[in-house]
Every structure is written in structure tokens, then in C-alpha cells.
Write a structure and sequence with these properties.
The protein is of the alpha+beta class. Helix content is 53%, strand content 18%. The strands form four sheets. The chain has a five-stranded mixed beta sheet, with helices on both faces. The protein starts with a helix and ends in a 6-residue tail after the last strand.
Length: 573
């Protein structure tokens, strides 16, 4: 029976028309690759979905963890500010003739410092100082050490070998607090403890919304205690988290990702079921079937006309495309043929001409867009109102005898005056140096004069042109990511201005913590979190061209050198 069917098929195939033979042979040969292609695409689609899911989970976990870390950093900064506040120490250890005088100092000095943070951060539950001398308690800000001597968290803080912040998490009572010995108080032989308590649920609120259906989040401390847990669409006991953390019973249907929370002795785990869209796999199969049908439909025509009408024109089009790939966009691509291939060739020529036009237009539009964005930003600020307001603040400060406020106000006024620059993008090097001096003065006040500044600029370059706000982002980056991270020694920022026959170089140098080469490259290519430094480099490239720009030289522990190179052009404005 099978032999008879085979002979019948061979006879019919031998007697069939050539176009039918070509179509049958083509479909027979194509069936196997299409089948394997389908299997491959389905497997790839499944793998892609797994990778996308893993990437999404890691991204959500990183963002939520970073949010908690950011909050902890803010609270630690607040703790440092109070613990090392000389004014607070002086008030608590000072001598007073009567209690009225003492409570007056409490209300004027201690209360604003300890109560004000709760208005700006509602998540702060309590901020209090426990003092060991005979000072009386005062409201919600001052209390006796005797009130907490039996508390476990106080004993842990008391036994601490250093005076840094200690975070204590009580998962049973849902309390999280930071405690520390106040070092300035101990210098006066007075033991004092700074107590900061934040809302438990508010601190971990960033994890509330990252759980999708079939996912869960769990936070454990170093002893394995469950600090926080949230599930969405997962029944209790459906997944044995302890086994998955230990590396046991990890099946292909479940996943788990972990990340440590910087600043706290906690690890967060995100787990859930792997989900796969079956409909997408079906779509792949449908596409393959449609492709097969298209192949069958087109084979009848392709088998008769392929060589005569297609190959020669496609070959010529391919040659033109190779020329374009080599960078030759000036060739003329034409065809006398009136069919689709001829239209494709002419369309390719038109497209090539349009690409050349768009390349030029896009470059010009990018410059115009940058100028428009800068002017739009500057237009949002009313300079006269700003200067009048700052002038009013300055006079009020002078009348009140607050010279430091007056100096900061004048520096801020000078900074914005040169920054706005009447809506212009260019100014003299001299004005740019004045601008950055004002900015450094403001930062110096904000950092309690914790760093030194050296300005070494050749007077010969002061009259030349530069772009507005080139140095300020570099100085800001040097302070925030260099000097502020420095743990020992006094920081310094040095601004150097030099010239050659054709160029001007402006360098911002610091002795901060530095960075590796990979991080330095990310900063000037928009691959980091901040955009100020990269924007400096892009503005220079767009305005002056590729030979000019920003160069960063740095190494870990050795500070950073940021060098701006611009052409030597006299300012005519």
C-alpha cells in the first residue's frame, strides 16, 4: 500500500509543471528549518521573558532598597548635625543663674533644632536627648538617662566602642531607632544619648507597591528575624523561603532575588512565581504559519521571474548599499525600471538624500533646541524680582547685624546675576570666575568652611569668551562626590586657568576620594545618575565642535582633575 502511494506520488510529481515542482521542493526543504526556527523562537521567547522578569525584579528591588538607604542617610546626617552641634553642647553644659534663663535657652536653641525636623520629615516619630547630669527634663526634647537605663537599646548603645550611629530594630514592637553617644557632651564630662525614632511602616513603605501578582517581599536581619513581609497573590506556605535562601528546592517555577540595604544590617528578598505569556508563543506559531503560506503563494511567481527581473536589479541595489555602508553617501542611485524594484532603487536614492538632509538639519536643530531650552529656563525666573528680594534680605540682615547672612545673600545675588547673564549663553572668563567664586562662597557657608579654595587664573584669559555655567557643575561635583566623601584631612578645591596659542583650559581640581576610570567615563557620557557634568561636555561639543570638551582624570584616593578646553575667542557681547 505504501509502495503504491509512493509510486503514484513520484509519477504525479514527475508529470507536474515546473512551477509546482519548485514550490513543492521549496516547501519540503523549508518545512524543517521553519519547524526548528519555531522551536528556537519559542525557547528564545521564554528565555527573554525570564530575563526581563529577573531584570524587572532586580530593578524594583534596587529602587526600593535605595529609597530606604537614602532615608537612612538623611537620618544619619540629621543625627550627625545634632550630635556634633557645638551650640547644643554649650546650652546643655552651660551655667545658668536660674531655671528661667535655662529654659529660655532651651526654647530658643534646643527646641528648634530637635522639633523642626519632624515638620520637614513627618516620618520622624521622636528626636530626643537623654542627659546624665542634673538638668531638668524639658518637654519632648530633653530627658534624664535614668528614664532609659533599663532599656535594652540603651545598654547596647552604652556598650558601643565608638560614637557613631547605631540602628536598632525591634521587629516585635515595630520600632526602629538610631541611638548614639554625643561626643561633644563627653568632652564636658557629661554623658548624653541622642535618640531618633522613625515610623516603622513608613521606612519600609517603598516595598509596598513593588509586589506584582504572584510576588512577595521579605526583609530579614542578621539573625534571620523577619522584619517585614508582604505578599501579593501568594498563599502563606506556598513558597518555602528559608529553603530558597539556603539554596534548596529552587525549582524552575519560582525565583528569588536578594539585596542588602546599605546603612542597615538588613537583607531584602523578593520572590515569586515565574510567569510566561502563552499567547506570545502562540503568536510566534501563527507568524510562522503565515510566513509559510506567503512562501507558497509567492513561489509560483518567483520561480518564473526571479532570475530575469529580480536578481540583476537587487544585485545593483546591494552594490549601492555596500557603498553607503562604506560611508559614501554622495552616490546617485537611479533606475529606469518602472516596477517595484525600480521604485525601491529610486526610493533608496531618495531616502539617501533625505538622510543627508536630516543629518545636517538635526545637527542645526539640536543647537537651536539647546538655546531655546536655556532661554525657556531663564525666562521662568524674574531677575528683577529675584534681585530685589535678595537685596531686601541683605538689608534686613545688615539691620539685624547678621553679617554672615548678608554675605551669603550677596554671594547668591552675584551667582544668579552671572548665571542668568541676561539670557545669553556666552560671557567672559572673568564673569564665569566671578560666578564660581560666589557659588563656592555659598557652599563654604553650607559646609561650615570645611574646605579651602585656591583660584589661579591667568589675567590674560579673562577677556576671552566662554559658555555660561561651565565651572559650577564641576565644583558642585567635586564637593558632593569628592570632598564630602573624604573621611580625613581638610579638603581643597583649586581652579586653574591657562592658555595656549589657540585654546583656553579651565581646570577644577580637588583632593577628594576620587574615582576609577570607568566611573569617570560614565560621568561625561550621561551613563551616571547625575547629568550636570555630562551636560557641560555636551554643551561644549555642540557649541564649539568635537576637538573641544571636558576631560576627567582621577584615581581612587587621589582626588579628581576636570579640565575644560575651549577655543580662544574674544567676547564681543
Amino acid at each position: 500500500m505504501i509502495s503504491s502511494l509512493r509510486r503514484l506520488f513520484e509519477k504525479n510529481f514527475r508529470d507536474s509543471r515546473l512551477i509546482k515542482k519548485i514550490m513543492i521542493i521549496y516547501m519540503t526543504i523549508s518545512a524543517v528549518p521553519i519547524l526548528f526556527l519555531g522551536i528556537f523562537l519559542i525557547v528564545q521567547e521564554r528565555g527573554t521573558m525570564q530575563r526581563q522578569q529577573t531584570s524587572a525584579v532586580r530593578s524594583a528591588l534596587m529602587q526600593a532598597s535605595s529609597s530606604v538607604t537614602s532615608d537612612i542617610r538623611v537620618y544619619n546626617n540629621l543625627s550627625d548635625y545634632v550630635a556634633y552641634n557645638q551650640t547644643v553642647s554649650d546650652v546643655l553644659t552651660g551655667s545658668y543663674s536660674n531655671r528661667y534663663e535655662m529654659f529660655e535657652q532651651y526654647e530658643k536653641t534646643i527646641d528648634p533644632i530637635l522639633v523642626a525636623p519632624s515638620y520637614f520629615s513627618p516620618d520622624i516619630e521622636k528626636l530626643k536627648i537623654y542627659v546624665g547630669n542634673d538638668l531638668p527634663s524639658h518637654g519632648v526634647t530633653i530627658a534624664h538617662l535614668a528614664d532609659i537605663k533599663n532599656n535594652a537599646w540603651y545598654k547596647q548603645c552604652k556598650n558601643s566602642l565608638n560614637q557613631s550611629v547605631t540602628w536598632i530594630i525591634d521587629y516585635k514592637s515595630h520600632k526602629i531607632r538610631s541611638v548614639r553617644i554625643m561626643p561633644l557632651m563627653e568632652l564636658n564630662d557629661v554623658r548624653a544619648v541622642l535618640y531618633l525614632e522613625v515610623k516603622y511602616d513608613a521606612l519600609f513603605s517603598s516595598f509596598n507597591n513593588i509586589c506584582q501578582d504572584g510576588q512577595g517581599v521579605m526583609i530579614l536581619d542578621e539573625d534571620g528575624n523577619r522584619i517585614y513581609e508582604r505578599r501579593n497573590g501568594l498563599k502563606s506556605g506556598a513558597v518555602k523561603i528559608s529553603d530558597m535562601i539556603a539554596g534548596k528546592n529552587r525549582s524552575g517555577n519560582f525565583y528569588i532575588e536578594s539585596r542588602k540595604i546599605q546603612g542597615l544590617p538588613l537583607t531584602v528578598y523578593m520572590y515569586g512565581k515565574r510567569s510566561f505569556a502563552v499567547t506570545q508563543n502562540l503568536q510566534v506559531i501563527v507568524i510562522l504559519m503565515i510566513y509559510l503560506l506567503i512562501v507558497i503563494a509567492t513561489m509560483r511567481i518567483a520561480s518564473r521571474m526571479f532570475k530575469r527581473y529580480v536578481v540583476s536589479d537587487i544585485t545593483r541595489l546591494e552594490e549601492n548599499m555596500h557603498e553607503v555602508e562604506k560611508g559614501n553617501r554622495t552616490l546617485m542611485v537611479v533606475s529606469d525600471s518602472k516596477d517595484e524594484i525600480g521604485g525601491l532603487i529610486r526610493g533608496f536614492g531618495s531616502m539617501l538624500a533625505e538622510i543627508n538632509r536630516l543629518i545636517k538639519e538635526n545637527y542645526e536643530n539640536k543647537l537651536s533646541l539647546r538655546k531655546a531650552e536655556m532661554k525657556a529656563l531663564q525666562a521662568q525666573i524674574n531677575p528683577h524680582f529675584l534681585y530685589n528680594s535678595l537685596s531686601l534680605i541683605n538689608w534686613k540682615a545688615i539691620e539685624a547685624g547678621a553679617d554672615d547672612i548678608s554675605e551669603v545673600t550677596l554671594a547668591l545675588s552675584s551667582f544668579y546675576r552671572t548665571s542668568l547673564n541676561r539670557g545669553k549663553n556666552v560671557l567672559t572668563v572673568e564673569k564665569e570666575i566671578e560666578n564660581v567664586k560666589s557659588y563656592i562662597k555659598i557652599q563654604s557657608y553650607m559646609h561650615d568652611n570645611s574646605f579651602d579654595t585656591v583660584i589661579d587664573v591667568d589675567e590674560g584669559i579673562l577677556k576671552y569668551q566662554t559658555l555660561n555655567l561651565l565651572l559650577q557643575p564641576l565644583v558642585e561635583n567635586a564637593i558632593d562626590h569628592g570632598i564630602d566623601m573624604k573621611e580625613d584631612g581638610r579638603g581643597f578645591i583649586k581652579i586653574i586657568g591657562r592658555q595656549t596659542a589657540d585654546t583656553i583650559t579651565l581646570t577644577v581640581e580637588d583632593n577628594g576620594v576620587g574615582m576609577d576610570e570607568e566611573t569617570a567615563q560614565k560621568i561625561i557620557t550621561f551613563k551616571s545618575k547625575g547629568y550636570g557634568v555630562a551636560n557641560v561636555n555636551q554643551r561644549i561639543r555642540l557649541f564649539y565642535g568635537q576637538p573641544y570638551g571636558l576631560k576627567i582624570e582621577s584615581s581612587i584616593g587621589s582626588g579628581t582633575h576636570c579640565t575644560v578646553t575651549i577655543p580662544k575667542v574674544l567676547n564681543e557681547h
